[in-house]
Design brief:
Blueprint (H helix, E strand, L loop, with lengths): L3 H18 L18 H17 L3 H29 L17 H16 L17 H30 L11 H10 L1 H35 L18 H17 L2 H28 L12 H20 L1 H26 L1
């Protein structure tokens, strides 16, 4: 859920933005008989996952080099949109006072809970550096620094780009639109800009997809080396030093998810499942304190921890009532993992 779902969502996002840049690129699907679940957009999404899987099978050095370039280009593109959008774009500050009035009823709170869970997707990955900690130089210094700097940059860019979207698009026109960046560019600068930005954003999304393809397999590899996952995933290619089996497995999971649901369904499934574990982690700090296994000073403890748990639980509960099917599938996925974990742990002891 934590890695394959965002890979699938990013790949679907790429196909949507490419469709905005080249509206006729999927027209061949009308002349070919395809199964109902296999659309041209999904075929392209799967091909994208396959290409980046091949890239990262070549090893961490090659893959990280590609990743650094993609991330830099993505940040530069976002900065370009923000600066020139506000300076030269044809937006309207009146859009900030438009939109639906929030009603203090159960329906309104359900929508708010689901929206917050989707927003969390923008920040999922803030902790990703920890998964490749063994491959980071001077991790005691660079690991915390990367987490703080990365999260800080994302917060600033996220707030700024969303302010630009509202400045460019009336809120009502955003409903149901996945390629909202392209729509904003079109409103700000005209139709040619919409196609250009669609193409650029599709390439920018490669950065997110690539990052998860780097990190996820290392986690599978680590679990396998500890005897908590299939041993075949602990194998490393002697030439590239890449955990090839783990990379291929994650690609397979991602492609299955592409074929299984829509963008918002995958986002909801992922958000609900991932929202459970931070609550368990924060709750675990109480046990560490009571058993004397942690002496780390945490500012505001235990009040900040209690507030976080209550707010996180409320968000999940509201999201469940708003999207019960996707949330139930996510909950079943998590619960299924419990006996699987104990099965692997038992085999490890034997």
């Amino acid at each position: 859920v934590g890695f394959s779902a965002p890979i699938a969502a990013s790949a679907i996002g790429v196909s949507k933005y490419l469709a905005g840049a080249f509206p006729d690129m999927f027209s061949w699907g009308n002349t070919v008989s395809l199964p109902g679940f296999l659309t041209p957009e999904r075929i392209l999404s799967i091909l994208i996952i396959l290409v980046f899987t091949l890239v990262h099978l070549r090893g961490i050095s090659f893959g990280a080099g590609i990743q650094n370039v993609l991330t830099l280009l993505k940040v530069l593109m976002i900065l370009f949109l923000i600066i020139f959008g506000f300076a030269l774009g044809k937006g309207n500050v009146g859009h900030f006072s438009q939109g639906l009035q929030f009603d203090l009823d159960f329906a309104g709170w359900k929508s708010a809970g689901l929206s917050l869970m989707w927003i969390m997707f923008a920040y999922s990955g803030w902790n990703a550096s920890t998964y490749i900690g063994s491959e980071i130089k001077n991790p005691r210094k660079n690991l915390p620094g990367s987490l703080l700097l990365g999260t800080g940059v994302v917060i600033v860019l996220y707030l700024a780009i969303n302010a630009l979207y509202v400045y460019a698009i009336p809120p009502a026109d955003m409903e149901g639109v996945i390629s909202v960046g392209a729509l904003a560019a079109g409103n700000l600068f005209g139709g040619l800009a919409e196609k250009t930005i669609s193409l650029l954003i599709s390439f920018a999304l490669f950065s997110s997809l690539s990052a998860y393809l780097i990190i996820g397999p290392r986690l599978y590899f680590s679990m396998a080396t500890q005897g908590l996952f299939f041993r075949a995933l602990a194998k490393v290619n002697p030439k590239t030093h890449a955990p090839g089996n783990a990379i291929v497995l994650q690609a397979a999971f991602s492609m299955i998810m592409v074929l299984s649901g829509t963008f918002d369904q995958i986002l909801t499934y992922m958000g609900f499942a991932l929202g459970i574990f931070p609550l368990l982690t924060v709750a675990g700090t109480f046990k560490l304190r009571m058993t004397g296994k942690s002496t780390l000073r945490l500012p505001g403890f235990p009040f900040t921890a209690v507030v976080y748990i209550l707010m996180g639980a409320a968000m999940l509960l509201l999201s469940y009532f708003e999207r019960p099917i996707e949330s139930s599938v996510a909950l079943i996925t998590v619960i299924t993992g419990i006996p699987v974990y104990f099965l692997f742990r038992r085999q490890k002891r034997l």
